[in-house]
Design brief:
Glucose Permease (Domain IIA), nine-stranded antiparallel β-sheet, 14% helix, metalloprotease, Dup_hybrid_motif
Length: 195
């Protein structure tokens, strides 16, 4: 007869295994000609940037976030370069900062996505695996920090039983395309300095 303590550890082990399998499936999708080898060191934030972005899932506390930026994807072939924010399907996705909708895009892997350029043109915010865009959202539209732009989903190659927002940040030059730039870790921008 199995003791209750062993059964509990078996459930924990199964949950961890499922989480690892889920995290390996999450990706950032860009066009074939997009640069993929330029990644900024996550510690290179300017003074005052830590915690400067709004968490892009409505009513999500900082404690609900995990730093998945450096986790590998595609069997270790590439880094994640984003964080996944787990939330129920349909919860509001809000703009992390003021800016302009640069591109509404759909792909097999990323599903419904939004690329938003910051007001100063130095950052691209990438929102993926969306369930739907906010009514009336359009390319070129100005959005304000906290404005609803979409809803959480599991479109693309995301696990349908684990809806989430895949959120990435890229440093760009104002003349770089929406899929350019260098990935930086969004986690400290959302919750503060590295611990």
């Amino acid at each position: 007869m199995m003791r209750p303590g062993r059964r509990r550890w078996g459930g924990v082990a199964l949950a961890l295994l499922l989480l690892i399998l889920f995290l390996r499936m999450c990706v950032r999708i860009v066009p074939d000609d997009a640069p993929t080898d330029r990644i900024a060191a996550p510690e290179r934030l300017e003074d005052g940037e830590a915690g400067s972005l709004l968490i892009p899932v409505a009513d999500m506390p900082p404690s609900g976030l995990s730093d998945t930026f450096t986790q590998s994807r595609a069997g270790g072939a590439r880094p994640h370069n984003a964080i996944d924010i787990m939330a129920e399907r349909g919860r509001a996705v809000v703009a992390a900062a003021d800016g302009r909708v640069e591109k509404l895009f759909s792909s097999v892997d990323g599903g419904l996505t939004i690329y938003q350029r910051s007001s100063d043109g130095r950052r691209i915010y990438y929102y993926a695996h969306l369930d739907a865009y906010a009514r009336g959202l359009a390319e070129g539209q100005l959005v304000r920090r906290g404005q609803k732009i979409a809803t959480v989903g599991s479109s693309g190659n995301a696990d349908p039983t684990a809806p989430h927002l895949h959120f990435a940040v890229h440093d760009v030059r104002p003349d770089e395309p929406w899929y350019g730039g260098r990935a930086i870790n969004p986690y400290p921008l959302l919750v503060g300095p590295f611990r």
